[in-house]
Write a structure and sequence with these properties.
Blueprint (H helix, E strand, L loop, with lengths): L10 H7 L6 E7 L2 H11 L8 E7 L11 E6 L10 H9 L9 H12 E9 L1 H4 L4 H8 L2 E9 L10 E7 L6 E6 L4 E6 L2
Length: about 190
């Protein structure tokens, strides 16, 4: 599952990585019909192996009822707060454990870990230390946070938001976490606590 596909920046890498797997179904979701239209055109420019099938879903990922559990969920959800639509915010919070936030990326984290076995998302670094995400960190602490990659501000060219990639095995208990820092050019293993 790619829960916020946009124009599909991850798709070429995913298709290449799984080109030798007998069958690969990739559900790509976006809330914007025009973006999905552009994505379809871009996909037509790719060479897609016979074993890969793309399923385009026009939906709000947070509210969508996924009928399956995914092996892998990978994405870069939006980093903005829901402030102008109180009814939508109420809907987002209804099934969310973290009631202290109105940030979309947090709603995506909870949705993705509820529908996926392995979840890898690029999110703002504030997830790691902001009190707003204490509940979210508590949820993740019961799972195996396998890797955290600290991009700092190097995650996206021209974007001054510090980001991290967090990779979680939602079905396994705590283990060690490998932390890679683009800032200090280091790789360290920590006991997950």
């Amino acid at each position: 599952l790619e829960p916020s596909v946009g124009v599909g920046n991850f798709l070429p890498s995913l298709i290449a990585k799984y080109s030798d797997v007998p069958e690969v179904n990739i559900d790509v979701v976006d809330i914007d019909e025009n973006i999905l239209r552009v994505l379809r055109e871009l996909v037509n420019l790719l060479t897609i192996p016979q074993n890969v099938r793309l399923n385009f879903i026009l939906a709000d990922t947070i509210l969508h009822n996924f009928e399956r559990r995914y092996d892998i969920v990978i994405g870069n959800p939006p980093y903005k707060k829901v402030t102008k639509n109180p009814r939508l915010l109420k809907e987002y919070k209804r099934n969310n454990q973290n009631k202290d936030t109105n940030n979309l990326f947090e709603f995506f984290i909870e949705k993705c870990i509820s529908v996926g076995r392995y979840v890898s998302l690029i999110v703002p670094k504030s997830l790691i230390n902001s009190p707003e995400f204490n509940t979210t960190r508590g949820i993740l602490s019961g799972m195996s946070v396998q890797t955290i990659i600290d991009f700092g501000e190097k995650g996206f060219k021209g974007v001054a938001i510090e980001t991290v990639a967090i990779c979680v095995d939602t079905m396994s208990p705590q283990k060690d976490t490998l932390v890679e820092s683009y800032i200090t050019n280091s790789l360290t293993r920590y006991k997950q606590t």
